[in-house]
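Task card 7
Instruction: Convert sequence to structure tokens.
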Amino acid sequence: MSPDQVKQILLDTKTIAVVGLSSRAGQPAHDVPKYLQAHGYRIIPVNPRATEILGETAYPTLTAIPRTISIEMVQMFLKPEAIAAATEEAIARGVKVIWMQEGVRDELAAQRARAAGIQSAAFRFIARWSIS
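Output:
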């Protein structure tokens, strides 16, 4: 995926469901979504142990998010072994983009997403890209 494609994804995205969003400041799984929220993105937390994070209602799974909430991107802060299940939920949800973090690899899940027509911005750190 080219830098121009990544920038276009970020321009086209308004709402990001963050699977594994942490309520603990100082953790990338908290601070990166908070940064995105501060730059105008709506963040939908997906965390089965929380009811609210960053001022937004948290949901236990992607499938628990009401369909009335339009989600363009799913960002994952998960252990590699949890990515496949979250990817299947993202496919079922019909999102446009899945964004996996650097150092978290599940190439089969990324291939599955691409086969379903979902762009996979795997292995890139979203906060490094200009979003202005």
